[in-house]
Amino acid sequence: MRKAAALAAAAVVAAAAAIAVRQRLREAKRWARVAAVLSDLQERCAAPAARLLQVSDAMDVEMRAGLASEDGSKLKMLVTYVDSLPSGDEKGLFYALDLGGTNFRVLRVQLGGKEQRVIKQESVGVSIPQHLMSRSSHELFDFIAAALAKFVASEGEDYHLPEGTLRQLGFTFSFPVKQTSISSGTLIKWTKGFAIEEMVGKDIVAELNEAIKRQGLVMKVSTLVNDTVGTLAAGRYVDDDTMIAVILGTGTNAAYTENAHAIPKWHAPLPMSGDMVINMEWGNFKSAHLPLTEFDQALDAESLNPGEQNYEKLTSGMYMGEIVRRILLQMAQEAALFGDNIPPKLETPYILKTFHMLVMHHDVSPDLETVGIKLKEIFQIESTSRKTRKLVVDVCEVISTRGARLAAAGIHGILKKLGRATDSPDKRRTVIAVDGGVYKYYTFFSECMERTLSDMLGEDLAPSVVIKPANDGSGLGAALLAASYSQYLQADEDY
């Protein structure tokens, strides 16, 4: 009897041991599959120095093609009509309106010239009601002009407008526009949820000026710019060597100062300054040298603009988090990364924001507790091992590293076009103004980008290229450009 019991117990122990061995083997195979996916991802996302130089060369070539003719390149290389950037001599009271999406900001600034610079600055943000985004242009611009009039009415005694002069407004409009002068441009199409079809093809500055008049406000739009040009202006205001501006946020773009003689498609008289600011619209850059994966190809195919904005889809806040989600989903499907059942939320497109990605990537706690918290909050994954959390961080690092290194290659391409990426006797100082949430808050991304650019330039040239943050460049830059171009028009009775 005892012998039988002992045998039975031994059998149970043996069976348990066999189960444990099978579980360990299964676990080992699971992690081997996960490791294989990660290794393949690292290999396909790799952006070694040689490839980055190819991307830089391609950017240079596309820039030249875009400057040569209107349809010569994926890069629009838009002539902005901004041929004079702020010098620091600007004086007076100026306003800005920054319309970039479902919110807008109005800003006023009192400028005191070289000695005093920005004496005082104030701004207020306003949300646009959902129904106005698809109604009529009159209703939308009347709402904006009313908010502007209210803001002007709160002008305190610290702000001084010379008697008999007209308030000047710089207008940052971050939608696709065909610019026709420094203060006019026709809307190409709405994005970001707006759908006022009657406005397409119309001059948006004219619409805003009419709405301002209906409010009885004595003010006129003197400059129309996009956020990247505003950032360039804000950068130049504080540093005369600022030549390039880059936005790395939800989207990405770059603008720079070009020699007017180097723009073959420019047929108008050359500007007095000899320079012209070019809005590259570089998010649409495309090259065979960009390291794409099946995750990028699927994202592009399922996007609202397949085949467009390839560079933006690799480097911007709109898309990097979504690429990470797609990779984690494949790991869950092929290797049960989060257990036998795939978390339903993991299959929801764009549920993982790049902000979530950077929070997880920046987790330095021993057990990666923040990663576990975020996985639970976003995907409702109740519990994860440290090994799983570390894998998630590794995926974030692969995608952010690729994006940062490609952003550096793009900047290097601009420097190459300007003749500032190769050694020269004078080693001219070049300042790059950078703004946007990805650059500002994703520390790993910004540090990796700056380090990569420095490596590409080499130790002799790198010290002459300086990257400077340009916080709130789009709003302040618009006001500064209004100041640059303003002649303080006399307010007349007809206006």
TrEMBL record:
Domain Hexokinase N-terminal: 39-237
Keyword Transferase: yes
Signal peptide residue numbers: none
Keywords: ATP-binding, Glycolysis, Kinase, Nucleotide-binding, Transferase
Cellular component aspect of the GO annotation: cytosol; mitochondrion
EC numbers on record: 2.7.1.-
Enzyme class, spelled out: transferase
UniProt-listed InterPro entries: ATPase_NBD (IPR043129), Hexokinase (IPR001312), Hexokinase_BS (IPR019807), Hexokinase_C (IPR022673), Hexokinase_N (IPR022672)
Catalytic activity, as annotated: a D-hexose + ATP = a D-hexose 6-phosphate + ADP + H(+); D-fructose + ATP = D-fructose 6-phosphate + ADP + H(+); D-glucose + ATP = D-glucose 6-phosphate + ADP + H(+)
Any one of the GO BP annotations: intracellular glucose homeostasis
Domain Hexokinase C-terminal: 244-483
Pathway: Carbohydrate degradation; glycolysis; D-glyceraldehyde 3-phosphate and glycerone phosphate from D-glucose: step 1/4; Carbohydrate metabolism; hexose metabolism
Keyword ATP-binding: yes
Pfam families the record matches: Hexokinase_1, Hexokinase_2
GO terms of molecular function: ATP binding; D-glucose binding; fructokinase activity; glucokinase activity
Organism superkingdom: Eukaryota
PANTHER family hit by this protein: HEXOKINASE, HEXOKINASE-9
Family as reported in the entry's similarity comment: Belongs to the hexokinase family.
Stated name of the protein: Phosphotransferase
Species: Triticum aestivum
